[in-house]
UniProtKB/TrEMBL annotation:
Gene3D superfamilies: Glutaconate Coenzyme A-transferase. Pfam families: CoA_trans (PF01144). InterPro entries: 3-oxoacid_CoA-transf_A, CoA_trans_fam_I, CoA_transf_BS, NagB/RpiA_transferase-like. Keywords: Transferase. Belongs to the 3-oxoacid CoA-transferase subunit A family. This is CoA transferase subunit A. PANTHER family: ACETATE COA-TRANSFERASE SUBUNIT ALPHA (PTHR13707:SF60), KETOACID-COENZYME A TRANSFERASE (PTHR13707). GO terms for molecular function: transferase activity. The keyword Transferase applies.
Length: 251
């Protein structure tokens, strides 16, 4: 099945207002910027986003965030995104912060059909006990807090129950992909992209290099095409447009 679409706008044409999105990327690595820009161009709003972070340096999800298009974020890192922090503290944005490993496993579990799992991460903290601010009231108070989660003892160790995540759509970026949707990711872009792709009911992948079926060694495939419904081939200019978050100089 040829899953290639012609344009980014075509790829995201059926994403409605209020949709939930799993979005890949780790920092600035592996972020599906072209698909995100297409969502911005379409004017889609009220989105619930699941992603490690919410963009940085006016790129990635920061484009949608700054435009007020995101209503809720499930993630593990705010970082240096000042607009993210401002909206959160002002009560304009609902934010569920969870441990990074738990976020990764919740996405994987959702994609694997596992409704929930137990983990020791967060036991004895507000992650398990509840009370984490999900939304502030804009005056310094908490308008909505996280509920307590189930905690069970296994062989003398306590574990907290975390639910798998499924979303309406997933947006990911791969280094290589074929027309059947088999994908290969580069280095740290592999941290969250395959997991986000698994969690989406409809997964859309932008690929830096599009190849024909059979050109990717099956043993080199990081994500099988069964998880991908649409593939967008980037232009050489789009593929090369990569920002650097922190520049360092070594003598």
């Amino acid at each position: 099945m040829d899953k290639v679409v012609t344009t980014a706008l075509e790829a995201v044409a059926d994403v409605p207002d209020g949709a939930s999105l799993a979005v890949g990327g780790f920092g600035l690595s592996g972020v599906p910027n072209v698909l995100i820009e297409a969502l911005y161009e379409r004017g889609v709003a009220g989105l619930s986003v699941v992603s490690n972070n919410c963009g940085a340096m006016e790129s990635g999800l920061a484009v949608l965030l700054a435009a007020g298009r995101i209503a809720r974020v499930t993630g593990s890192y705010i970082g240096a995104n000042k607009e993210f922090a401002r909206q959160y503290l002002a009560g304009e944005l609902e934010v569920e912060l969870i441990p990074q490993g738990s976020l990764a496993e919740r996405l994987r579990a959702g994609g694997a059909g596992i409704p929930a799992f137990y983990t020791p991460a967060g036991v004895g903290t507000q992650v398990a006990d509840g009370g984490l601010p999900w939304r502030y009231d804009g005056q310094g108070g908490v308008a909505l807090a996280s509920p307590p989660k189930e905690v069970r003892d296994f062989d003398g160790t306590e574990y907290v129950l975390e639910r798998g995540i499924r979303t309406d759509f997933a947006l990911v970026r791969a280094a290589r992909g074929d027309r059947h949707g088999n994908l290969v990711f580069n280095k740290s872009s592999r941290n969250f992209n395959p997991l986000a792709a698994m969690a989406g009911k409809v997964t859309i992948a932008e690929v830096e290099e599009l190849v024909e079926p059979g050109e990717i060694d099956p043993d080199a495939v990081h994500l099988p095409g069964i998880f991908v419904q649409r593939v967008l081939a980037l232009t050489p200019q789009q593929a090369a447009d990569k920002k650097i978050e922190q520049r360092t100089v070594r003598f």
